[in-house]
Specification:
This protein has helices at about 25-40, 50-60, 65-70, 75-85, 95-110, 120-135, 155-165, 180-185, 200-205, 215-220, 220-230, 230-255; strands at about 10-15, 20-25, 45-50, 70-75, 115-120, 140-145, 170-175, 195. It has about 260 residues and is of the alpha/beta class. It has two domains: about 10-205, no CATH class; about 215-255.
Length: about 260
Amino acid sequence: MTTTPALENPFMMRSILGVKIAVSSYDEVVRQSLLWASQQRSSALFFAAVHMVMEAHDHPDFLPVLNGAGTVFPDGMPVVWALRTLGDRKAKRICGTDTTVAVLAAAEKAGLSVGFYGASQATLDALVKAVQLRHPNLNIAYAESPPFRPLTAEEDAEVVERINASGARLLFIGLGCPKQERWIVDHLDQVPAVMFAVGAAFDFIAGNKSRGPKWMSRNGLEWVYRFISEPRRLGVRYLKHNPRFVLLFLRQLLARSA
């Protein structure tokens, strides 16, 4: 896999286990996204929970995908706490779902077209319906559910052609980590849009899954609610990644102070 050189990055960055994480705010992310979209700049925005950071640690070829072609924001309180420990006391979580909601609202006001790529057809239909209800003046120029298999080169070229013909300038990708991040990087030089790797945001906005009470999110406990909701899928992920993340980050801190 080759990576496309990143745009000049306006965000302050910190390294967590080698992954460059941006310290920012929702307002800044939305403002920069709309600027790039209005300029038809091909760009990538990623949202890192512990799972993504550990994917980059466990698969060295994934690390340059994240660092070399996009901007990674902290989606997950352990990552935010790590940023604060490194000195960014006011670091905040930038959640992929909340970013999607904020960008869609801003795009409606700015008159920028949006698109969605990923998920099952049923989820995509529910997502588009929910977004249309919330934003009746938003132009959803593109929505496509790809097959659950690798595309041929010809099929992939046809997807790119459809996206570009639609005029979508803000493209939300919901293929799951790390597939969605790799897809975006592979298409950076082909799609003149701001591309967001937002994973489960499709399900949340479509109403297929719930995020739990806001007080849990504010206190870094949303993962508990999600674990209770999907113990079989998320339990293995949390048990595999979270303890190792803590130990590896402590090792990073010790090396930094040595």
